[in-house]
Amino acid sequence: MFPYFVFGVFLVVGLVLLARWFVDADPKTLARAARHVGIVLVLLVVVVLLVTGRLTQALAALFFLAPLLMRWRAVWNRVKAAGGPAPGQTSGISTATLEMQLDHDSGAMAGRVLRGQFEGRELASLARDDVLALLEECRVQDPQSVPVLEAYLDRTFGTDWRGADEGGEAAGGTGQRARPSEGAMTRDEAYSVLGLEPGADREAITAAHRRMMKNLHPDHGGSDYLAAKLNEAKAVLLGK
Questions:
Q1: Residues in a beta bridge with 110
Q2: Do 64 and 123 have their domain in common?
Q3: What angle do CA 189, 133, 155 make, to 5 degrees?
Q4: Is residue 36 located within the same domain as residue 137?
Q5: CA 4 from chain center: how many Å?
Q6: Residues 6 or more apart from 226 whose CB is under 8 A from it?
Q7: Which terminal Cβ of the chain has fewer Cβ within 10 Å, N or C?
Q8: Range(s) of the domain holding residue 52
């Protein structure tokens, strides 16, 4: 009797810890965990079928059901694309100095400084003058972060900051200068920019690009840099 009691206690504690982790975990972490659990379950089912001698029948049934499952998956992807992103969904852009997140619903940008005098600080905790000081630092040490930070300033403070930064633009200058080359975007980076999981199909990619352009296109208060990143991500994933 006592061993069953001990097992029950451990089971309850384990379920409580699992529930707390599920509530606090990042959605992307949950998605990865779900995939890993799914793979383990599939392997267990295969082993059971192999041991019981029913693997051949199961494979035959799967062969006939595969086309139907593929159609259901395509329909589900279209439904998800039409329904838009889940509330609070974000995408990310990272440079040597900045780690940025973009909220799909509001178009708001948030970020963290990875190095320099403001290392470890959230951009939201910095006054405008501090962000301008960081911009000057990036112009000297990390030109690739300059357009990202300019986009953040535009979204957060409007374009008035450019008047206060005239000296900096003249000295280190960005403005209408050619942007520094950032190298070719990888597929993983493209998925991150569009806020998609790797392996998303063409319809999901197109829908995510269209949704985000509504918030980030220059005509809608966005920036040329962010719009260009979205277009580049779409081109990388669709091979255009």
A1: 101
A2: no
A3: 55
A4: no
A5: 44
A6: 102, 151, 216
A7: N
A8: 2-83
Tell me the torsion sign for CA atoms 199, 202, 207, 210: positive
> CA-CA distance, 161 to 157, in Å (whole number)?
7
Helix (H) and strand (E) counts for the chain? Answer: 10, 3
Q: What is the pLDDT of residues 3-36, one digit of tens each?
A: 555 556 555 556 555 666 555 555 556 566 667 7
Separation between Cα atoms, residue 191 and residue 236, nearest integer Å: 9
| pLDDT per position as a tens digit, 99-133 | 988 887 677 889 999 999 999 999 999 999 999 99
| 42-91 confidence digits (pLDDT tens) | 777 777 767 777 767 777 666 666 676 676 666 555 555 555 555 557 77
Q: Among the three residues 55, 83, 111, which one is the final residue of a domain in this structure?
A: 83
